[in-house]
């Protein structure tokens, strides 16, 4: 009887045998298959063929799936509506009502988004199957990773490139499917009637303004008065005023209650005049920041040194952690959560993991960031907060200023909103950084970032060519103001003759 029983279940036993834990010994294991993971994998492969990439979720990168690209698609649709609405300012009056078809808007967003994701997936498909492991990795020790219940990876070096995820107060989960994050927006088949956005940061400003211009009723709340990534109080104050002209924004709100009532959310809050207000919205969009995905890696099983947020401490130039054989890159590093930064960190971390123990400092470019709102926000080099922290109030730096409200080309295009602050160092005259809100800020920021990385002085920047009439002439005005305040050039002339009229 026993023999019959064993004979009967033997196929099942064979299946169980197939699912036994498999052990792999590799030179480099990369945890994560997003922007940083893919970059680190390719960099490490330049030094050794023994590299595996471990991914538990969908391939496609945060940027392509739910970040940079789909958000810009939504913004592009919103900008097309806004241009029509601005036309009467030029004496052009479109006839009839503007009809926004939410289903068509979202269909294009998703279609183009899927196209961008497809390009990434093509790159993933080119990676040999034996180099890809599907599953979630956890540390067993400094060199051992357990992938779900199927694979043990013993790696000489490891790169952590697990990305980040949206973070918000846990109590908000009581709102159920009325609570959404930016990922959810890009799965909509149609636009809702109303949304409350919590968090006027980069994502909140971009999505909130775009939805408003596409006909969605938008109200935006924040805490602590922060608007976007700005740190310069004057530039931030301008941004706060500008966005409030388009939709309700309270950057330091006092919310009394927020609860779900059927298929809507009821929010009670204290208005700017101190009165209790009540609104109902279809959705609450949480854009209150992102959290590095390192808390589920069982890092406690390693000897890694962690910062206050539980993220491995890493060298800025080598991406090497306190454990010499472990590196970190991308959003998981909690340094600069931007795609171009993730790509740079990935190349550095992957290269060093591949060439270990020979470690090299990688190129860290001048910082540049942008918010694709209208007006756009951009920051370059050292921020105002970083400069005041580093230099204090000793008068070691000065601020140059220009307003875009009267700037020639900006007025021509009816885009004359915004201001630019540029910072320069006393004595050396070196350009230190900038914060701005204004037209074409994404392009102005690139020019300034190139100058910053080249360690140019303000005088050297003023020697560069400026065409007329262009928005960049506003940069020259701010630099001239800065040069004068640094006592390295003449005082500003109210009407600049060599710029031509209206500059």
Automatic annotation (TrEMBL):
<protein>
    <submittedName>
        <fullName>Pyridine nucleotide-disulfide oxidoreductase, class I</fullName>
    </submittedName>
</protein>
<comment type="similarity">
    <text>Belongs to the class-I pyridine nucleotide-disulfide oxidoreductase family.</text>
</comment>
<feature type="domain" description="Pyridine nucleotide-disulphide oxidoreductase dimerisation">
    <location>
        <begin position="369"/>
        <end position="478"/>
    </location>
</feature>
<dbReference type="GO" id="GO:0003955">
    <property type="term" value="F:NAD(P)H dehydrogenase (quinone) activity"/>
</dbReference>
<dbReference type="InterPro" id="IPR004099">
    <property type="entry name" value="Pyr_nucl-diS_OxRdtase_dimer"/>
</dbReference>
<dbReference type="Pfam" id="PF02852">
    <property type="entry name" value="Pyr_redox_dim"/>
</dbReference>
<feature type="active site" description="Proton acceptor">
    <location>
        <position position="468"/>
    </location>
</feature>
<feature type="binding site">
    <location>
        <position position="72"/>
    </location>
    <ligand>
        <name>FAD</name>
    </ligand>
</feature>
<dbReference type="InterPro" id="IPR016156">
    <property type="entry name" value="FAD/NAD-linked_Rdtase_dimer_sf"/>
</dbReference>
<feature type="binding site">
    <location>
        <begin position="199"/>
        <end position="206"/>
    </location>
    <ligand>
        <name>NAD(+)</name>
    </ligand>
</feature>
<feature type="binding site">
    <location>
        <position position="289"/>
    </location>
    <ligand>
        <name>NAD(+)</name>
    </ligand>
</feature>
<keyword id="KW-0285">Flavoprotein</keyword>
<dbReference type="InterPro" id="IPR036188">
    <property type="entry name" value="FAD/NAD-bd_sf"/>
</dbReference>
<dbReference type="Pfam" id="PF07992">
    <property type="entry name" value="Pyr_redox_2"/>
</dbReference>
<dbReference type="InterPro" id="IPR001100">
    <property type="entry name" value="Pyr_nuc-diS_OxRdtase"/>
</dbReference>
<dbReference type="GO" id="GO:0050660">
    <property type="term" value="F:flavin adenine dinucleotide binding"/>
</dbReference>
<dbReference type="InterPro" id="IPR023753">
    <property type="entry name" value="FAD/NAD-binding_dom"/>
</dbReference>
<feature type="disulfide bond" description="Redox-active">
    <location>
        <begin position="63"/>
        <end position="68"/>
    </location>
</feature>
<keyword id="KW-0274">FAD</keyword>
<dbReference type="InterPro" id="IPR036324">
    <property type="entry name" value="Mn/Fe_SOD_N_sf"/>
</dbReference>
<feature type="binding site">
    <location>
        <begin position="162"/>
        <end position="164"/>
    </location>
    <ligand>
        <name>FAD</name>
    </ligand>
</feature>
<keyword id="KW-0547">Nucleotide-binding</keyword>
<feature type="domain" description="FAD/NAD(P)-binding">
    <location>
        <begin position="27"/>
        <end position="346"/>
    </location>
</feature>
<keyword id="KW-0520">NAD</keyword>
<feature type="binding site">
    <location>
        <position position="331"/>
    </location>
    <ligand>
        <name>FAD</name>
    </ligand>
</feature>
